[in-house]
Design brief:
two-stranded antiparallel sheet, 256 residues, globular, 51% helix, 5% strand, mainly alpha, single chain
Length: 256
């Protein structure tokens, strides 16, 4: 899925390659929420390390499991204001609690190639259709299936299925079906930013993978973009067949 050029990865926080956190964990939404709930404004990586390892805000039994949780959360989200994808997510995180699952999964998809590899199965699934871990893996790029053995791929499938359930794209426990995720103005702002950072501009921003993951028709995405613009999160203008989206707030002090 060639949506992220290598020039984006080191600069803004996207990650490419064949490795990924979903070989061992899900997107860890509950842990992320617990962590960000207690984090003060503008936390840095050292702050998050203290919260997880020493204050044990995630209630892990040992130092080793706390360190492992820190590592996985850092892989998925960055946990540093110097990483644009994380800083922008943090800017929007507490604006709308109901948007947090989609904000988190958008960031995780941008940073975990394994999770990103399962996106075709999610976007290609009709509402109400059965989605299995095996089906998620089957739609991945062959390069992933050649790189990992059967046991690892099975775990990737199970973890990805759990993540897509946490994000609101799937429903059910043992038997998971495709449902419609709930798009919100904050998630539209973030999805448009991700598209912008992938060098997409204008109307095409509303048809990127990031916006497709919001499960909303174009007119709803544009209505929510207008709402996000009124809040000052983005600048959205559309008229005369021309669409412009600016990101003065989310891209402050960033040279793009």
């Amino acid at each position: 899925m060639a949506i992220i050029g290598p020039e984006n990865a080191p600069r803004h926080g996207f990650r490419t390659g064949q490795g990924g956190t979903h070989s061992s964990r899900t997107m860890m939404l509950n842990e992320l929420r617990n962590l960000l709930d207690v984090a003060e404004r503008n936390p840095d990586l050292a702050t998050f390390r203290n919260l997880i390892v020493f204050d044990n805000v995630l209630a892990k039994a040992t130092i080793a499991t706390r360190e492992k949780s820190l590592r996985h959360l850092r892989e998925l989200y960055g946990l540093s204001p110097t990483i644009l994808l994380f800083r922008a997510m943090m800017d929007l995180w507490k604006q709308d609690v109901d948007a947090q699952p989609l904000l988190a999964v958008l960031c995780a998809v941008a940073r975990d190639p394994l999770l990103r590899g399962t996106v075709p199965a999610i976007l290609g699934g009709d509402r109400g259709s059965l989605v299995t871990p095996q089906g998620l893996v089957a739609r991945m790029d062959p390069a992933f299936r050649e790189h990992y053995n059967h046991q690892v791929l099975a775990k990737v499938g199970r973890n990805a299925a759990s993540t897509w359930t946490q994000s609101g794209h799937l429903q059910g426990r043992a038997r998971k079906t495709r449902v419609q995720a709930e798009s919100r103005p904050t998630t539209v702002a973030y999805a448009l930013l991700l598209g912008h950072l992938c060098d997409i501009r204008g109307d095409a921003l509303f048809s990127t993978l990031w916006c497709q993951l919001l499960d909303a028709p174009d007119h709803v995405l544009r209505e929510q973009a207008q709402a996000a613009s009124r809040q000052g999160w983005i600048e959205y203008r559309s008229g005369g067949g021309v669409t412009e989206v600016g990101f003065r707030h989310l891209l402050r002090d960033i040279d793009t």
